[in-house]
Specification:
The chain has 404 residues and is mostly helical. It contains 17 helices and three strands. It has three domains: 62 residues, Orthogonal Bundle (Helicase, Ruva Protein, domain 3), CATH 1.10.8; 113 residues, Zinc Finger, Delta Prime, domain 3; 174 residues, DNA polymerase III, tau subunit, domain V (GMP Synthetase, Chain A, domain 3, 2-Layer Sandwich). 52% of the residues lie in helices and 5% in strands. The protein has a three-stranded mixed sheet. Strand 1 and strand 2 form a beta hairpin. The longest helix has 22 residues.
Length: 404
């Protein structure tokens, strides 16, 4: 005769029993395996079910088939035999799928006002904010998969295929990866927040604040425009250095002229691609073509020389020549060809170090901001008084432009 003992706490068994047993450590089952088994059981019992409902149960079981079966029994009793997604979410206390998708859509659009509005709506249902972050992370993970394998949107789970495809096309992959990491880290920090809702809100706002293509730190993440309506940065749209209002620095006429030029170079949402490519509209084209990551940095270190018959000639700053790779050029070609609706060919030649690229202009603008901030700080009466009275020294590295 053989006895099979199953336990989740083997340390509680007497040593005399353990010494006479063969121990087998069983691994947790994947959500896919649990979901397949639940579908088999529901089919064998002739129970009508929604695939999304069983997917929720599979995830909530966290690898335990025993817990999954218990949850299935609870759902049958809770819904009177109706295994629907709505009943599963109500029983498990998870937030509505549409609410999760609207939160992620607001993140992708960079719309802080809409994001906070969704949090206010969510708070009315007194949700478990830890589970809410789990749901957001789960959707971001599905989006990341669909961005790599578009056919994965056709699989049966709690997220609709068309919605997944729409989000996968509108949110850059780099943003999706960043949002996922911040959501996971946010769960860890949630217990230290003043209250769960505040921790949830700060996690979402952190996603906006640290997105790869976000505006300058001086701009508010909550009140900024959606991603499609952002101002391009570069040679035609570099803002004049801004100082803190308290410093008493008044913008010069040259700064106003530069700001007006920046306004003229904005790319309106849905505007058709320009007929020509030149140094003035190149930064706007880089933004409109949705170049990101290393390809974006490479493009901003270039200046267009000519664009004729589909051939784009770029001059590359010699200081950035080591960033040039075949993969980056192919990514640029794909993005530009998609944006212009025609096949674009690319020719890149390395220019002198003195080439005025959008990246160099942005760097100069930041240096000007730092210089203006340092000058304003030195002229501050309080700083002068501290120096004269106590012989204080200023740590130049600690000075930041206003709004940072």
């Amino acid at each position: 005769m053989k006895f099979l003992l199953a336990t989740t706490d083997p340390q509680k068994l007497p040593v005399t029993v353990l010494s006479r047993c063969l121990q087998f450590s069983l691994k947790r089952l994947s959500a896919a395996l649990i979901g397949a088994r639940l579908k088999f059981i529901a089919g064998a019992e002739e129970l009508a079910f929604e695939a999304a409902a069983l997917a929720l149960l599979s995830r909530a079981a966290e690898g335990s088939m025993r817990d999954a079966l218990s949850l299935l029994d609870q759902l049958i009793a809770f819904g009177g035999g109706a295994l629907t997604e709505a009943n599963a979410r109500s029983m498990l206390g998870t937030i509505d799928r549409g609410h999760v998708e609207r939160i992620v859509a607001a993140l992708g659009a960079g719309d802080g006002a809409a994001l906070l509005a969704q949090v206010r709506d969510l708070d009315r249902d007194a949700p478990d904010y830890d589970r809410a972050l789990v749901e957001v992370a789960a959707l971001l993970q599905r989006i990341a998969i669909v961005q790599v394998v578009p056919d994965a949107a056709k699989s049966e789970d709690e997220f609709d295929g068309p919605d997944l495809l729409r989000l996968a096309r509108t949110i850059p992959p780099a943003d999706v990866q960043l949002y996922y990491q911040i959501a996971i880290a946010g769960r860890r920090d949630l217990g230290m927040a003043p209250e769960p809702r505040a921790g949830f809100e700060m996690t979402l706002l952190r996603m906006l604040a640290f997105r790869p293509e976000a505006e300058s730190p001086a701009e508010s993440a909550v009140g900024r425009e959606p991603a499609a309506a952002r101002r391009p940065t570069g040679s035609a749209s570099v803002e004049a250095p801004r100082s803190s209002p308290a410093a008493g620095v008044i913008p010069t006429a040259a700064a106003e002229t530069e700001r007006n030029a920046a306004s003229a170079a904005r790319t309106e949402p849905g505007a058709p691609p320009p007929v020509s490519i030149d140094a003035a509209n190149w930064p706007a084209i880089v933004d409109a073509a949705q170049l990101s990551g290393m390809a974006r940095q490479f493009a901003l270190n270039c200046v267009p020389a000519s664009f004729e018959h589909g051939l784009l000639r770029l001059r590359l700053d010699a200081a950035a020549a080591d960033r040039r790779t075949k993969q980056i050029e192919e990514k640029m070609l794909q993005a530009l060809s998609k944006y212009f609706g025609q096949e674009i060919r690319l020719s890149v030649e390395t220019a002198d170090n003195g080439l005025v690229t959008p990246a160099r202009q942005r760097s100069l603008a930041e240096q000007n901001k730092m210089t203006a901030a340092a000058a304003a700080f030195d002229e501050d009466p309080t700083v002068k008084g501290l120096r004269e009275r106590f012989g204080a020294d200023v740590d130049a590295a600690s000075i930041k432009p206003g709004g940072m």
